[in-house]
Amino acid sequence: MADRGTAATILERLLRAQRGMNFEQALEMESLAYSTLLGGAAFRRWLVARGDVSSAPIAAPPLQVARDGNTLTLMLNDPANRNAISAPMRDGLFDILTNALDDPTQPHIIIKGAGKCFSVGGHLPEFGTASDLAQAYLIRMERSIARLIDALRDRCTVHFHGAVIGSGLEVFAAAARCTAMPDTWFQLPEVKMGLIPGAGGTVTIPRRIGHERALELMLSGKRIGAGQALDWSLIDEIVG
Question: Fewer CB under 10 Å: which end of the chain, C or N?
Fold first, then answer.
């Protein structure tokens, strides 16, 4: 319990410190705090308690891309792993969104997920595999998907459905417009792992629902449905 309190305390201090910061500054603060907790005892114990995890082979490629006129549709396409944000998926998103940002035609971007859910967040077999936390911090900043979506913000729409967990929410909440199917639910479980949201969530989510509600969602780890998400402005519309 004391170790979980460490993550909670760092989260509370981080959200307080981020008030008034621009997106880039707040993202830097989050990544530093996340890197600190990756080296903490609570996260190590969570890894031991979790044990070995298996997964289906990652789809190749884990993204489908289609362009129709000036609309670019990205489909998270690893349903066997519930569209977990694996390293190959992150790399694909980074390359595609970087190209879209540089595209002089300025396409509108729509992001969806294949299968039963949008995304369950980080790919669990990759958790705890970084041997150099300082280098991991630099890579996380240089290849931040949330930062790219924020830069593309007014041109980006995300359609959620089913489970939307951890980084599956954090990254894509940076979009200007987020919609959800009625069956959608959202959850941020990182504090229970001895961590904090580390994919941009301490930046993107407070900008949508305010710091107090963001802190409540992150500390409790509770699930909220599409109706509550709409009431809180986490999403902009329930569709379908």
Answer: N
Please name the residues in contact with 224: beta carbons below 8 A apart, sequence gap of 6 or more. Answer: 185, 186, 187, 217, 232, 234
Identify the CATH number of the domain in which residue 231 sits: 3.90.226.10
Give the count of domains, the chain: 1
Instruction: Evaluate if residue 130 carries a pLDDT over 80.
Output: no
Distance between CA atoms of residues 55 and 66, nearest Å: 27
The DSSP secondary-structure symbol of 234 reads: S
Residue 192: DSSP 8-state: G
The answer, as to whether pTM is greater than 0.90, is yes
Over residues 102-119, the pLDDT tens digits come to: 999 999 999 999 999 999
Q: Which two tokens stand for residue 44?
A: 């190590």
Alpha helices for 39-170 (secondary structure H): 41-50, 87-102, 133-142, 145-151, 167-170
User: How many helices (H) and strands (E) would you count in the chain?
Assistant: 10, 9
Question: For 58-72, what is the mean pLDDT?
Answer: 95
Q: Which domain holds residue 35?
A: 2-238
In this prediction, residue 3 has a pLDDT band, given cuts at 50, 70 and 90, of very low
Query: What pLDDT is recorded for position 224?
Result: 98
| Measured CA distances, 147 to 9, 19, 22, 67, 154 (Å) | 25, 17, 11, 22, 13
